[in-house]
Design brief:
By secondary structure, this protein is of the alpha/beta class. The protein has helices spanning about 5-10, 65-70, 90-100, 115-120, 130-135, 155-160, 185, 200-210, 215-225, 235-295, 300-315, 345-365, and strands at about 75-85, 105-110, 145, 165-170, 190-195. It has a five-stranded parallel sheet. The chain is elongated and about 160 Å long. The termini are far apart. GO terms for molecular function: choline-phosphate cytidylyltransferase activity; phosphatidylcholine binding.
Length: about 375
């Protein structure tokens, strides 16, 4: 039996003049599409002891070629996949999805080992067997769940559940004193390989939990779990509480720093706006000052205009040149009574008196 590969599953001949889907014809050997029977789409998959099997019909395995061509709707290809499925994750779901899509009409049976077998042959599990059964039941690709599945598949077990193919990754699985527990299945031509999902496994998840144990222990202590339930000593419990308080203080300090940074940033933005506004206002003030008090400012023009008006107001008006001139009559002289001499006076009065005396003598001569 040739193992199914992705290229073989997806290989289809295309013809431009074909009448089938994607240009395929009946000669291409592509089975028609058919609906798949599945209990896991709307409700949990049933357990194998809850499903009735008609043992009146003989158990005749289908070949790989028959399975690939497609079987009747009432005779799906029965594919079996087993495992521990502890901490059920996406890697488990992807493996079951591949097993479900091996053939066009597939009925997927999943076997889950019990706690007793798992603890004896592999190790302690995080989830108990009932939790692991329930997790597999609610996977959408599963049609039936076998509880307490055997560690090594026997011909009697395969015949009881009428299994056609066993799906598992192709890596040899050494356990129970054997280099590969699926060796006899491969030799019988009943093995259908699937691909493992890299980057995730139950061991990886447990490793993360162990690595970050302190973080999870502190978190669960905060949620109300006791130190006894978490298997934490008294000293570690006090240490975790102290670390929790320190972390809270650090968080508060960090929040204060972030808020202070935001406040400083806002103040800087405000100061920049104020400086810009102050510069604009200062330029406007300086311009207005120069416009008023500058060399050619409005104040200088106002002073000039006021000075001109003041000079015009205090200066006498000149008489017109065409007006007639009048001879000034000589003013009468004043003489001291009983004396022909003038009284002593200041030099200015003396000069004035001299002119007066001269005038008086001329008048006497005329007389």
């Amino acid at each position: 039996m040739e193992p199914p590969t992705s290229s073989r599953l997806n290989s289809r001949k295309r013809r431009k003049d074909g009448s089938g889907p994607n240009g395929a014809t009946e000669l291409d050997g592509i089975p028609p599409k058919m609906s798949r029977r599945s209990f896991g789409l709307r409700e949990p998959a049933p357990f194998s002891d809850e499903v009735e099997i008609d043992y009146s019909k003989p158990y005749i395995r289908v070949t790989y070629e028959e399975a690939m061509r497609g079987t009747p709707l009432d005779r799906p290809v029965r594919v079996y996949a087993d495992g521990i499925f502890d901490l059920f994750h996406s890697g488990h779901a992807r493996a079951l999805m591949q097993a479900k899509n091996l053939f066009p009409n597939t009925y997927l049976i999943v076997g889950v080992c019990s706690d007793e077998l798992t603890h004896n042959f592999k190790g302690f599990t995080v989830m108990n067997e009932n939790e692991r059964y329930d997790a597999v039941q609610h996977c959408r690709y599963v049609d039936e769940v076998v509880r307490n599945a055997p560690w090594t598949l026997t011909p009697e077990f395969l015949a009881e559940h009428r299994i056609d193919f066993v799906a598992h990754d192709d890596i040899p699985y050494s356990s129970a004193g054997s280099d590969d527990v699926y060796k006899h299945i491969k030799e019988a031509g009943m093995f259908a390989p699937t691909q493992r999902t890299e980057g995730i496994s139950t061991s990886d998840i447990i490793t993360r939990i162990v690595r970050d144990y302190d973080v999870y222990a502190r978190r669960n202590l905060q949620r109300g779990y006791t130190a006894k339930e978490l298997n934490v000593s008294f000293i570690n419990e006090k240490k975790y509480h102290l670390q929790e308080r320190v972390d809270k203080v650090k968080k508060r300090v960090k929040d204060v720093e972030e808020k202070s940074k935001e406040f400083v940033q806002k103040v800087e933005e405000k100061s920049i706006d104020l400086i810009q506004k102050w510069e604009e206002k200062s330029r406007e003030f300086i311009g207005n000052f120069l416009e008023m008090f500058g060399p050619e400012g409005a104040l200088k023009h106002m002073l000039k205009e006021g000075k001109g008006r003041m000079l015009q107001a205090i200066s006498p008006k000149q008489s017109p040149s065409s007006s007639p001139t009048h001879d000034r009559s000589p003013s009468p002289s004043f003489r001291w009574p009983f004396s022909t001499k003038t009284p002593p006076s200041s030099p200015a009065n003396r000069a004035r008196n001299e002119s007066t005396v001269t005038y008086d003598i001329s008048e006497d001569e005329e007389d």
